[in-house]
Amino acid sequence: MRSHEPGSRNELSGTVHGATIQAGAVHGGIHFAAEANSVRQTPWQLPPTVHVIDRLRELEALEQHRTRAMRQERPALAAVSGLGGVGKTTLALRWLHALRSHFPGGQLYADLGAQSADGGALPEEVLGRFLRALGMSAQQVPATLAERTALYRSLTADRRLVVLLDDAATAAQVRPLLPAGRSVTAVTSRSRLPGLTVDGCYPVHLEPLDAEAAMELLADTLSDDRVSSQPDAARLLVQLCAGLPLAVRVAGARLAARPERRITTMVHALAEERGRLEALAIDGDHDVRATLDLSYRALPPRAARLYRLLGLHPGPEFGSAVAAAVLAQAQEGHATEPLERLHDASLLLDSGEARHRFHDLVRLHAARKATEDEPPQERAQAVRRIADHYLASATRAEEVIDPQHRTMARDYGAGPVVVADVGDDAEAALDWLERELPNLMAVIRQARAAGFPTVGWQLTDALWPLFLRRKFYDDWNAAHREGLAAAEELGDTVAECRMLTSGGVGELGSGNHDRALAMFERAARLFTDRDDRLGHARTLNYRGLALQRLGRSDEAAELFQRAAAELPIHGDHRAGALARLNLADVALTAGRAEEAVRHAHAARTALLEAGDSYNAARATTVLGRAHLAGDRIDQAAEQLSSALVTLRGMAANYEMARAVSGLAEVSERRGLTRAAREQYREALELYSSVGRSHSGEAESARHRLRRLEHGESDA
Q: Which of 281, 367, 519, 605 could make a disulfide contact with 504, Cβ separation 3.0–4.6 Å?
């Protein structure tokens, strides 16, 4: 199969219906050293801050706590608790942003989603994001929570950084996310989280603003003289908002949009609304609920409909194209005006780069309004349009990144289907998929229950290029489990085979070799039942790869031999050539150089004929290394140099490492010690960049480099 991931090897014939996949070498139980295996980078993830009113005492207390902790050379941990809408996140952001110059290690941020319907973010998911933000490649992120926690603390032990863990549910959710070293962490929660006391946590509980501070906030929101000219009315208004900053901001935003309106008009309206909705409070925040209801009723019809339908969105934030999708508009720009209305009313927050997010209370309110004001059929259609938007956009990204994989059906609802701008090149499309991954996974998880199981497996299929290249193994495996369940529910054996083979590669990459083999064998049985000989022949390569990982090389070679013979008979010459390439790799590993030369040469010829320049270059690398094993130094140098030219143009770091390491051995045998040292160092850097620092090849290169560093000179 052809690789689209520069950091993997052992590629074999395509996926179920002509698509292409790759699995890299996996070495179970590996623990990565922070600096050896990561590209150190500095994240700056905190959301923008806003003006803070009357929290000076709390800010001073937080800063005194930090100063004491730094003086004692320990991490600083603080938990900010209080009602929804009281300004917990605003206070934490104000404190942490002010520390940027003192903490050059960066800023990490996670919304832990305590108020979300699914119970909030799992610590292992958040740790995966943090580790990648700190420079670990996705394939370097360990599989278990314990390993991720250990690696996270190793990475943060010598860094000065700040972390904001927003909207936490429990101390247990927070504890694995606490960094090591002299870092600062702020946690926000509606609960006081006493369980963090044992971790040295400093608690800050926020009360609502007093009347004077709330009036100051109202004046800041209005940006005119109405508060100073109507102080009694302003005081009544902030009392009705119970001093909650969110409620004051929302009420103020509505007044700001109507500069001619007196504050007393809002007071009368809010007083009536607050009393009527007392029993409908959101977790006791009746003042926020009343304020939101009043602002909602003041929205123009299109903006109000957008508001409530966006409440059905399954993820924490979204792009502008989602707004067009829920309104059944074909073009993203058609939703611009109602989106701006929601921002003007302080019902949406700006996440940057044309992205939007709800405060958790506002999202709950919007969802409730959808239930109250939208018929069930309209809600179901809006949820389907959101799912179709993500399916179509992910499919577009798939086509940009890996057009050969794009072979399976895509089924959409009544439409219109809005496709996001995912970029024009592979890297941009991959970045779009990675940024939207939380939303894409949320859609996959809801698909069966929402009544569109086809979206579950088709969206999983569209995510293949992201999983293959960036190795999000947790999501890879979870998505394919859900996709497989959807295919089984539909009785779609074609989709089932796709989920088994693509999912099996994810399990293989995760080190679950037995599970991967079982999935490949199940797919083989399904192909046999359908009399699909080509599909069955393709599974030979998958099964061989799993057997090779399990140390059963002879059995693997037998399956590769069968695949090389059968696949061309059934019309897939390219997949047959990749089976020959696998055979060459097996032979080279076993020390059978001449056999490796024969298979690699045949594979390269067929791959060039098929137009697969990447895998042809891989075959050329194996050919060069086989010549090296046979002591044909000049031929080895020629083949390895040729392969390297092609691979550099593709940023294929793993295959580049193999070629460079081979050229280093050529230099070493020619007595060019300085050149060999430089080439071994380059190879080790390339292995490290794709998480292969502990592979057998990397260890061999490291051993040779150490030997050369004992004072030998160039010939």
A: 519
